[in-house]
Amino acid sequence: MGPVPDPNDPSTRDLLSRLAAGDHAGWPDLLHVHHARLRRMVALRLDARLYGRVDPSDVLQDAYLHAARGLPDYLKNPEVPFFVWLRRLAGHRLGRVHREHLGARMRDAGREVSLDRGPPAASSEAMAARLLGRAPRPSEEAVRAELCRRVQDALNDMEPMDREVLALRHFEQLTRSEAALVLEITEAAVAKRYLRALAKLKAILEQYPGGLEGLRP
Length: 217
Description:
By secondary structure, the chain is an all-alpha fold.
């Protein structure tokens, strides 16, 4: 059996090659390449009750320490892109933070996607808040609150996997192939579920200035 093909993009592959050759100065550069997307993931999935008590940067720093220790094993067998592997470690740490701080008060996961190797699911409240952003004027607060409630209802009515695909593709901005690896489904299934999730939101979001296109991820 031949060597496992490296799934990483050229820039990441180059940095990993430098690390494998003993050039540890490339480690900060490698983390910098992926830091923004990882921080976006942690901020989206951090339980609202921990705001002000847990900083996403602390979660990521802990994940990076674990990654540094596990890097030699990853380099021997890079079956998934480095970002997907690193995101998995950050998800583990975020889940541990939730258990440490919330324990039995953790969100009911009955309507969420449970992934042994993934982070806690994003709540409909967090996703709706990020979809709508902040109302530009106080006079729009009431309209925004009603729209936020309707968007949350739409998200809660989705199949958990559809909602998770929406979180990965729209909010975390994962590629279709990355989302497929994270969820362990096909890219075709990711595309189908993503379009279905967007369609369910479209009628509601069109009432907001700019519609879906005007909403920030």
